[in-house]
């Protein structure tokens, strides 16, 4: 299997910096925002965006993690609703994930958010958009568009759980 690095750690940092500034600009600041990272890698990316927003705006945004397994439509095993509560009612939710592919993970995440309360708005930030949507879902903030075939695999690695920051494509 051939593996090619698409972005290194510095490229990932630049993409997240750009996403951070786009979030601030589009929302005219950070009032009433909450960052929600989809487990596993989305939460680490959301925390990094929260850190960058704090550097720019001197405000620490609430940053939550979201386990979507209960709401997935492609798992044979039923998962219980996770313990805890997301405080999303009347907030602008910035949903953060590593890769946007078919759109099913994001659909499950939106169902989960609605379970916890009616958000004012849900925006989507992804590090990689690789296309091949099965649902009418699009990202508001994209770190990198990586056109790919269905046979290719895009891997996002983050130092917090993989020991390295990079994005690779495997053929």
UniProtKB/TrEMBL annotation:
Enumerate the catalysed reactions. Answer: UMP + diphosphate = 5-phospho-alpha-D-ribose 1-diphosphate + uracil
Q: InterPro entries, alphabetically?
A: PRTase-like, PRTase_dom, PyrR, PyrR_bifunctional
Q: What does this protein do?
A: Regulates transcriptional attenuation of the pyrimidine nucleotide (pyr) operon by binding in a uridine-dependent manner to specific sites on pyr mRNA. This disrupts an antiterminator hairpin in the RNA and favors formation of a downstream transcription terminator, leading to a reduced expression of downstream genes.
Which keywords appear in this protein's UniProt record, sorted alphabetically? Glycosyltransferase, RNA-binding, Transcription, Transcription regulation, Transcription termination, Transferase
Q: Subunit details for this protein?
A: Homodimer and homohexamer; in equilibrium.
For this entry, list what GO says about its biological process: DNA-templated transcription termination
Q: Which source organism does the UniProt entry give?
A: Copranaerobaculum intestinale
Q: Name one GO molecular function term.
A: RNA binding
What protein name does the entry list? Answer: Bifunctional protein PyrR
Task: Identify the CDD domains for this entry.
Answer: PRTases_typeI (cd06223)
Q: Which family does it belong to?
A: Belongs to the purine/pyrimidine phosphoribosyltransferase family. PyrR subfamily.
| EC numbers for this chain | 2.4.2.9
Task: Identify the residues that the record assigns to the Phosphoribosyltransferase domain, covering every copy.
Answer: 3-147
Name the residue ranges of motif: PRPP-binding. Answer: 93-105
């Amino acid at each position: 299997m051939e593996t090619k690095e698409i972005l290194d750690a510095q490229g990932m940092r630049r993409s997240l910096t750009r996403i951070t500034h786009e979030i601030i600009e589009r929302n005219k600041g950070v009032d009433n925002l909450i960052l929600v990272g989809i487990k596993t890698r989305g939460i680490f990316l959301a925390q990094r965006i929260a850190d960058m927003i704090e550097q720019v705006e001197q405000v620490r945004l609430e940053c939550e993690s979201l386990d979507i397994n209960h709401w997935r439509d492609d798992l044979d095993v039923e998962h219980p609703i996770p313990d805890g509560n997301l405080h999303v009612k009347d907030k602008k939710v910035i949903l953060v994930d590593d890769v946007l592919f078919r759109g099913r993970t994001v659909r499950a995440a939106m169902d989960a958010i609605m379970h916890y309360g009616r958000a004012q708005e849900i925006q989507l930030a992804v590090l990689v958009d690789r296309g091949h949507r099965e649902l009418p879902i699009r990202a508001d903030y994209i770190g990198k568009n990586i056109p790919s075939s269905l046979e290719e695999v895009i891997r996002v690695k983050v130092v917090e759980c993989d020991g390295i920051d990079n994005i690779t494509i495997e053929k």
